[in-house]
Amino acid sequence: MMTQIPIPRYLLDFDLESLPARHCDMVVVGSGVAGLSTALRVARRYRVCLLTKSSLTVNATTAAQGGIASALAPGDSPELHFRDTVETGRGLCEEEAVWILVREGPERLLELIEETGADFDREGDRLALTTEGGHSRARVAHARGDATGSELEAGLTRRLLYQKRLSVHEDYFVVDVLVDQGRCVGVLGMDVEKGTLSCFLSSAVVLATGGLGQLFLVTTNPWICTGDGVAVGLRAGAEVADLEFIQFHPTALHLPESPRWLISEAMRGEGAVIVDHRGRRIMKGVHPLEDLAPRDVVVAQMVRVMKEQDEDHLFLDTSGIPPERLKERFPNIYQHCLEAGIDITRMPIPVSPAAHYASGGLVTDVWGKTPVQGLYACGEVACTGVHGANRLASNSLLEGLVFGHRIAQDFGRRREAGELEPPRGVPISHRRKKRDLPVDLQLLRAHLQQLMMDDVGVRRSREGLEEARDFLEENWDLLDLQFLNPAGLELQNMFIVARVIVEAALAREESRGCHFRTDFPGEAEHWRRHIVFRRSEEGVRFCTRGVGELASPEYEW
Ligand code: SIN
């Protein structure tokens, strides 16, 4: 068993009594679909402060192209959606959470369209549905072709204007969640422009901070996705599970741009195929669903072929889709590629895998609750267990909607029962030994991203993972420093999250879903378990938990 990883409880010194404070009923951190939809619901009755470290529109939801999966088509059913989700999750899905996702999903999606007026594509009077990797039926709804995420965000932000009880605070970096006597009482944060600290005091906090793709050199995630929510939650006492399962998207546009532009899987749903440099299809005979196999299968095959052929990319051949259909169905991809000199109606698209989605995160029960009273997590930062070892395409926006709705219900119920009263006069302060070391943040960050890509990416081995661990250990005194700027705080969060991924990947001596160990290439039945991390006074350590017991309150640490 690994030694304990020392991480500080709070990253900065503070004394709440001397800081400016705002009061509300709920703080929501993050402005993607999970954060916005939760905030909008709760604000119907309670005062909500929505905080985001950049502007409202900078988040992974806005970049999402493909769509939202839900069983709405004739001949489809929640049972089939359930089957595809757990098959893709390779034995690690929490079935109760998956049933909730697939049964409540259709109603949440229709409600969202109705409430926001988002312009989803239609065929006649029905929603147009397409297929993506791992889906046995066409069930992915999409908006304005390949602009599903931005259309959703636009619809949700329009609704913000009508909410008297909701205030939005952009450019506000949440440094830590405040916990007093086991109960979450708000957040400590920094005004990004001024570099000043303040706090928001509330009876509940929802972390909906999104993903962590920026830990890797090549990613589809926007710059804000540095894993902050996972690190903040872990420091506050929440649990982190399944973080070794980092999903790489097979088809990111292979150009030196950051983040990499996504070439939606929906293109393969419409008939595009992945080919090598000689135009040969690489997925034929590899999986019954061929190019629409689950992402882990497609990525593993791409990496195999690229290694054998000594190439750093492959191609997406779109010649099977008529040019007019391509332009109409994928207007943004068409335009972006054209600006880069690639006319997708006439030439194949260069693609390679890029870090895309964290299947794990902060452990929650089916009401979005973490073990810290009053602290919820929702969306990519959370681990409800619906994704298991690999997320099914287009289940992520759906997860944010379904569990955001449940968080709002749970919060309302508990407030009415008098369980989550607003905090009063919270006397928290924090002091620790300060250290002063010269540190080149940019260099350290670049080194971390390269190492994570090379050694903790699609193919992993003990040797590479130990190298990554050595690097993190050698530079661990970064966590002793106190930064009054987001770049330093972000890097500290990235170190903590990277360390958890590395330790989990080292422990998991098998290959399952998105986690592939070259030295343990098969699935091992005894590893059909979650790896769960938690912090105590002595540091962070992990245990393993059986499937069906992820959010088990009985577990003894
Ligand atoms: C895509 O459009 O390929 C991305 C959808 C997803 O990540 O679920």
> What is the CA-CA span between the terminal residues?
14 Å
Largest sheet: 5 strands, parallel
Shape: globular
CATH-defined fold name of one domain = Flavocytochrome C3, Chain A, domain 1
Helix content: 25-40%
Backbone CA Rg: 22 Å
Low-pLDDT ranges: none
Number of strands: 27
Bound ions, cofactors and other small molecules, one mention each: succinic acid
Mean pLDDT: 94
CATH class call of one domain: Alpha Beta
How many H/I helices? 14
User: Can you say what the CATH homologous superfamily of one domain is?
Assistant: Succinate dehydrogenase/fumarate reductase flavoprotein, catalytic domain
Strand arrangement within the widest β-sheet reads 10-4-3-14-21
Can you characterise this structure?
With 557 residues, the chain is an alpha/beta fold. Among the domains are: 252-353, Flavocytochrome C3, Chain A, domain 1; 438-523, Fumarate reductase/succinate dehydrogenase flavoprotein-like, C-terminal domain (Methane Monooxygenase Hydroxylase, Chain G, domain 1, Up-down Bundle), CATH 1.20.58.100. The protein is built from 14 helices and 27 strands. The strands form eight sheets. A five-stranded parallel sheet has the order 10-4-3-14-21, covered by helices on one side. Strands 22-20-15-26-27 form a five-stranded mixed sheet, covered by helices on one side. Strands 2-13-12-11 form a four-stranded mixed sheet. Helix 3 (78-88) crosses helix 4 (95-116). The protein is globular. The two termini are 14 Å apart. The structure holds succinic acid.
